[in-house]
Design goal:
Shape: elongated
Distance between the termini: 35 Å
Strand content: under 5%
Helix content: 40-55%
Amino acid sequence: MSPLERPVPPAGEEIHLPPGSAQPLLLTIGVTLSLLGITISPIILVTGIVLTVWVLFVWIRDAVHEYRHLPLEHHAHEPVDLVPWEEPEDTGH
């Protein structure tokens, strides 16, 4: 295993997957409406922008809520050595 890879939970431990959501589809629709609204109509533009901002707000809120309710072992982050082949500098003391 590479030092950059996160450790895999032992067999039998539950892996957390977020629930299904319509948010990616709604975000796509909002961005599409915004782009179409630039060329077609200001009403479509405003509708797309409002939908995009609303979906982003709800998606971020849901993600933060979900993260805060994970078991504590899912919050633990092990420090990752980004350059494992470099030796620490010797201070000479």
